[in-house]
Amino acid sequence: MALNIADLFEHAVDAAPDNPAVKVGDRVATYADLERDSNRLAHFLAARGVGPGDHVGIYSKNSIEHVVAVLATVKLRATTINVNYRYVEGELDYLFENADVVALLFERTYTDLVARCAPKHPQLHTFVALPDVTDPDNASDLSSFGGVTLEEAYAGQSAERDFGERSPDDIHIIYTGGTTGFPKGVMWRHEDFWRVLGGGIDFYTGEPLEEMSQSSAATDPRMITFPLSPLMHGGAQAGLLMHLFGGHLTVLEPKFDPQRTWEIIEKEQVQLIFMTGDAMARPLIEEYERKAATGTPYDGSSLFAISSSAAIFSPDVKKRWMDVFTNAVFTDSVGATETGFQGMGMQDKEQISTDGPVVGLGPNSVVIDDDNRLLDPATDVGKIGRLGRGGNVPVGYYKDPAKSAATFLEIDGQRYSVPGDFARIEDGNRVTLLGRGSNCVNTGGEKVYPEEVEMAVKAHPAVYDCLVVGVPDEKYGQAVAAVVELREGMSLELEELRDFLRAHLSGYKLPRSLTVVPQVPRNATGKAQYPAAKEMALAGTEVPA
Question: Total structural domains in the chain?
């Protein structure tokens, strides 16, 4: 048995081919539908020379075709590269080059950007345009870079499963942000990815599953799950695959909209939702409360599990949810692209922590002190350290041995992934999450890295120096704030700066406040003093709503 992502999906196909697998709007794809179409796309890619170990970019919002693209790639033993669809041209160029992408499966709405990037990347030889669920009539010209439509790629291709044996050592890459400001590709062996992100270990007992454990239950009554985050992020991708392995139905939407979300929950009788902290939880509960005040509330009675991860689910927002959904189970899940699942906290309305989420340590999760020693959860209660995980951990970062050595540590002969999240040990094998130790800004689940934004800000002709920090924000958890020293005799307004930056940065990276100071705080050697900059940002300007 290969313990390979493609094999695990195919086991579910064989067990329950007629089960609905993915639903977007009124479209439903069964497991047999996904199998047929992913086989056809895989054969097309193979005919174009894509093979084991090659990197295939997937540049798409949530859709059935996005799922097909992932499955087609892993069936070939090629490697998916998740592309953030908010990226601008320079960010795409970096990713395509850094990730050595040879084929790109992209929504047709992004054709203009692809056309500008394509000539700069000679290794990128194959382009397939996926239909855009939000713009189905898009007919952008693909000819300048030799692109074909998905239907053209399907034409004449076999729907048979004839790809040969696969390996648990095949590599699955998820690109995530890094403290340098540039995304990094986290390399997982397929078996390790499955163990810690795909349900291959029982989350509660820590017991490893057998290869057929998930698919053997595919004929049982199935769950209806609704991940609200984009599949371009590792958490949503892992949740999708885990539920595909078990024969469940996953509902997807291409764009987050609170009203639409409640309408889907009501119509589809969704049982589990996965959301990104307050950025989704706050507008959702506000929309629910608004509708309830009209006397015709949404029917959310099917919800029995409400899970948040990747961003802060604050106490006041959590309590509002719990006041409404009194019988649902609320969980804060903790993990990272570099670690997989590290722990889960069952939340109780009477015991909501104000310091941070409190979670039980998962299998192989550890807390490590500044001297790289393992703390004892039983005797070191109250101590703070970095949260890590042993056991099934990634191979490293793609083409970045220095960062790999800093994150993946060997302690007492065991290998651990320690991406930099800090936690305080609590009683009962639990920890309170205290946040990333770096200067990364987490705004609504999106990671923003100060150095990247600073470089873009300093390109403005009025700016002499700049530091970027995260400040508290009620809606997004954190907001990007710029502390700027201007050139003599110059002036600058926030909206002017934001307009300038739109050509260089994705929208979520743009500063939402601007504080002009006489001198940006740095020490004698020029090293940035981020705590001082944050104090200036908090004192100087309120973050606009």
Answer: 3
